[in-house]
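Weekly structure sync - notes
Attendees: PM, LS, DV (DV joined late)
Agenda: review two folding runs queued last week.

Item 1: First target. Sequence and structure tokens pasted below for the record.
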Amino acid sequence: QSTSMEYVTQCSSLIFDPAKMAAGLGRGVSRLLTRAAGVQTPQVLSRSLHASYQRHETIPVRLPALSPTMTEGSIVEWLKKEGDEVAVGDVLFDIETDKATMAVESTEDGYLRQIIIGDNTSGIALNTIVALMTEDLDEEPVMPDEAPAVDDAKAVQEPAKEKPSEPKAAAPAPAASSSSSPSANATTKPLSPAVRAIVDRNGLDASTIPATGPKGYLLKGDVLAFLDGGVQPLEATSKSAPTPTTESKAAPSATAATGSRRKRQRGSVDVPASGMRKTIASRLTESKSTIPHAYSLGEADITELMALRKELIAETGRKFTLNDVVIKAAAMACRSVPIANAGFVDGNIRHNTSVDVSIAVATPGGLITPIVFDADKQSVGKISANFGELAGKAREGRLQPHEYQGGTFSISNLGMFGITNFTAIINPPHACNLAVGTTRALPHPTKGMSQQMRFQLSADERVVSQDDATRWLDVFKAYLENPKVVLTGLTYTDLEDY
């Protein structure tokens, strides 16, 4: 009987270890259990225990990478609450990437049990656990081993909770030393511009800050030490004055001085940059510092284009903008001068087989460039419909990555804002960025008044030479000045008398 009990003990330790059961250790144990107690065989218990183990596994929700350039993200808002049932495909939360605000969907069925990183939290590293799910509502979630990564991300959300006690603990020691210093008295000297700026910005009274400078001047270090809590404030009016007359004259003058200064207080508020703003700053800095920009300015007479556009809209009732024609003409020019549609990638000149035009769109978070694919093959009407939809999605933060990542040629148009001409920064790996200005009515020797459009091409000289840029601008101008060719989809070789 004792031998049988030993078998049972040994078998029980194996049965309740699902990993060992899964490794195939149940065959010998089966014989022992059958012999010892006539209980269920380990194969039956293994299946039930392993299923139970899987059923009670916590499902971590991690921050996904939604774009190739994304290194961190910000949770804007949770759309599910703790305790909500979640199905595959349900939107859990909105995330702000380096390009846009996008929805993160669940890849598992279950219940959202714990939100670890809440709304409006920025600087979250990729793959960080932001929440925990379980398959059943009555199960307790268990944090995986990489909990420190979550703690670091959570510290970004509430940075102020870690620091309040530190300055208070360190304050008494410097305060005692400063109060014992006989030379630390209120200043009666004029404040330097740097000291005055700090005093005004923080709304301080200079007469309450101990001055340790030569001849009683208040130093910048004195004000900073006062702000850090390292020194104790002085009385606003001096108690050591020898006569009542001196005291009565000094105190009002100090009060009047600080009062007049406080009326002119200036300050600032630091607002954390969004992921999109950080990416724009990084990309533009990289572009200007590493790409040799060359600029070529051009101008086209679009009087005929404006008249034809007005006529077609009146006849068909289908509206299209001047920007739609610019996109089409630029794409056709890229087909005629392919080097302008190339890019510089990993030390190589990449010749693109399609013309995909990226157009800058202003959003509350910054600029984003939705793409009109195969723009040279689309009609102006189709370009108008496609770009109108893309621009709307961009302003609402609903663009998907494939709708703004890539492209072969860039256009920045500020003409609708009345800007005559400006300089665009190249968007790598593109080799060119076309800056389009507004139209102007100018006198013409034979036409009377003509509508002129000015534009400037920024080109990467590693890819596009000045001759190439000039050829592209000539073709682009020819298309704008022959709008029937653009609107009918003909090619550059079909232009007459050019």
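Item 2: Second target, run right after the first with the same settings.
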Amino acid sequence: AQLKCYCAITDKNVPQLQAESRYNINSQLEHLQSKYVGTGHADTSKFEWLVNQHRDTYTSIMGHPNLLDSVAIVENQSRERTRFTLLQRMIVPCGLPHEEEKPFEDKNA
């Protein structure tokens, strides 16, 4: 038996998600996050997220010929030179990661 709840916006009874449905959705999300690196997870740092965004953007530009042509025209380079430049940028798109200090680390030890 599904629980019913009243939705004031649509004036209809709306079934709520059951515990099994929530578990199923969470397991699907975990599967996607393990399969695809760019989807992130709870421990993804801001730097990792930004690196994934840059790499996805460069890949999209290289995969769409019209975008690649536009970037090549703007940079006044050939298409292949632009593709090579984008590939080089994908290696370290946002520079090296910063060293983060651990909050409870004893620096005198």
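Discussion on item 2: The beta strands are 4-7, 12-15.
Action: LS to circulate a short write-up before next sync.
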